[in-house]
Amino acid sequence: MPGVFDGLRVLDLSSGIAGPMTTMLLADNGAQVTRIEPPGGDPLGHQSGYRVWNRGKRNARLDLQSDEGAERFRSLAGGADIIVDSFASGTTARLGIDHDSMLRVNPRIITCSITAYGDHPLHADRPGYDGLVAARTGLLYDQKGRRGTAMEYIGGRPGPFPEFDAPEGLVRGTDRKGPVFPRTSWPSIGATYVATLGIAAALRAREVTGEGQRVTTSLLQGALAAVSLNWQRVEFPDAPLYWMWPIDSRSIEGLYECADGRWVHHWTVRPRWVFAAAEGDELGEVVLDTSYRDDPDRLSMEGDGLLSGIFLHPLLTEAFKKFPSAAWEAAAGSAGIGVTTVRSPAEALADGSFLADGCVVEVDDPEVGRIRHVGTVLDFSATPGEVQGPTLPSGAHTDEVLAEADAARPHRSTAAAGAHPGLAHPLEGVRVLDLGLGVAGPFTGRVLADLGADVIKVHAVHDTYWAGTHMGLGTNRGKRSIALNLKHESGRQVLERLIERADVVTTNWRPGAAARLGIDYDTLRTRYPRLVFCNTRGYEKGPRSDLPGTDQNAAALTGTEWEDGACDAGNPPLWSRSNMGDTGNALLAAIAITSALYHRDRTGEGQEVGTSIVNAGLLHTSYAWIHADGSPGDWAHVDAGQFGLSPYYRMYECADGIWLFLAAVSGEERGRLFRAVGGFGGDVPEDEAAALLASRFSEKPAAEWFAALDEAAVPVEIVNEEFCRTIFDDPDARRLHLVSETWSGGVGRFEDPGLLVNLSPAHAVIQRGPCLCGEHSREILREHGFSDAEVDVLVKEGAILDAPVETAGAARAE
To answer: At residue 807, does pLDDT exceed 60?
Structure first.
């Protein structure tokens, strides 16, 4: 069966990380991707990820700055569907290949531009290396978390219990204060997700309207995607339920060293199970008699849970140290508890279960032989994808592609003017039932709502607590809520009525849960053949399927925590507070759903789609690959101090204690650096260069060094700890919808990162503020044919919760 993008032609002009990763996802799912590089090849072609991200693509060299090269590209564009670029702002217009110019060549073209900062006038002209964006946005301060949480920091508040520090001995990654550099390129990862989602949405809009579409995003928006649930400012931050501790820098997160020196990630933390299992001289087989939610000894997510974690941390450390990691993992698996050994990317890629699932694949690389790397990360029942082949040398298809350009005829649009209806938003007219749990499920619905879908959040009647937390609010922006008791026959009947009118049903339930309620895809497809059904998982399809899947456990399993903490340098692992395991799973799900809707509009066929948190984690470490014998490939590692990847791509502390990030990647940039700094040149060995540069930067304040290096055209940024505060009052950020201001019961005014991808003419939209549990139950039931009297009966029976906004706050406070 062909992939969901079969028949589409993509021209890939991108460089770096986000663009190549985006077009990799298109190629994996059937698109013919032709990579266009400059005559000398891609200047960033040395990075290890290119061996992965450019797989399955054709590769041609073409000089877009020459008249002949530009004309040939226009010929190729006439027969293309999608163009992806990562040029600096204004470059496509200067080359004559901007969206408006391409529309004149091909009225159905979709262009996707990934810049550093988009159109923000203060940032648009700044250099766009990932580390520089992470510095300028202050994302490097979010890796270990901010004291009191990012929300409290943004509000200028210390957070609960300011008199308490992190427990003694709690070290993540390098043991120092200040910003830290993670191996994962979070701005580019975020941009990859939202660019791919934007392209899928544009394809759906084009299928309905016949019009070409413009998609834009940026590394800035990618960074905002990474912290989209952490950076919030609300009117009433002391509202009951709102504050949660897991992103507080003082909090424990369940990382513990075992007797064999290996680390495990235990999440969610169940102290009673740990202490009972570790009580004797051998690790006991203990099964708790309660679920996490009902466990009286669990660490709650409120303030008391923070204090409990601080006091229990030394005891938990001692308990885990008694037994080896494999024993803990086995005992936890038997008990249905989340404990995962922290692995390197090489260990993850060597996992036979991953290979069997397809989230890891083996290919024959023409340069280094048989290798393993991340496989397909999207599941489609009707249009499955597959890796199309290895990465081929730069220019391997130049003659073939140039011949196609020379033979191409001028493109003529097949869409008659006015023949198709317009769309205000790409997913206008699409109704989504969101039955997701936690973060990984509901965040899918949030991003679909931002694309114009009517998303109905199906809460459980007991979801009042979670819906009022900062995570619950952040994941449920743009939706309406109905609260159902699915253990009640009438509640299940209501759900069936909702499904009758739905285009999409999305869940992230454990295997078998949907089938027990009769709402699994195999059951529903016979009655609703046009339905798109999505169920995402924690792990691969295999022996881990029944285990509790979390952001933290997947980050341990796939190598993200290993690399972000610089474990190869001897550090403990680091669970980044901007980690995108849950949200990455959700964005992959949204990509799959939107792509399946595009397929349905073409064929009338619904299908089942899915992905996993593990798939997201493998995508995050996709710069890594291994040889078939298990030996690791060649990728850059973070140094022990977590400053960066090399002396010329890293942070330096200046005389005033403020940090600079330097990105002198090319030889020319390093030459300018040597002249600006003085005292040494390019003949200094790298292991000495970092010490020399650190010494020089410590002599002056950061602002002086920034001015000097910026004047010398050396890519540099100050690591801006305050960015997360100032962006909410930035009028340009508001005008560009980088931040949004809505309203939600309980917390009042609600501000958070806004639109993560921009489209036109069918544009993204922030529809409303976060919904509370059962806030719109009556409204939704009326739409589905229920009378007020029937709703009253359902409430009385306990089948639904009817909690309109004026009473929702009181219900939450009880």
So the answer is: no
